Amino acid sequence: MSAVRTTVTLDPDIEAALRRIARERGLSFKEALNSSIRAGLGQGGAAEPYRVPTRPLGLRPGIDLDKALALATDLEDAELVRKLELRK
């Protein structure tokens, strides 16, 4: 298969997106452009899975999140009782 040279005019946002893809994936601009066009034409094969970056929660050891909802309910109830007692 031989390559065909052609000139295209890209909107600035498309160029920026292609450059970002090229940088993130370690591709040349040409490779990013061709893979994006292939994907758009339905010839790109399987799409890359979406990955959610993990972040540390900063929780202290010994905190059990399994009972967080029950704790939140207890705190809400205690605050409601406190407000009702202030009305007396």
Q: What number is the mean pLDDT? A: 86
The total count of helices amounts to 3
Determine Rg (CA atoms, Å): 27 Å
Head-to-tail CA distance between termini: 86 Å
Low-pLDDT stretches: none
Overall strand count: 0
**Helical/strand content category:** mainly alpha
SSE ordering: HHH
Q: Strand content of the residues, in percent?
A: under 5%
Assign an overall shape.
Answer: elongated
Largest sheet: none
Q: Helix content range of the residues, please?
A: 40-55%
Describe the structure.
With 88 residues, the chain is mainly alpha-helical. The chain has a domain at 1-46. Helix content is 52%, strand content 0%. The protein contains three helices and no strands. The protein has helices spanning 12-25, 29-40, 68-87. It is elongated and about 85 Å long.
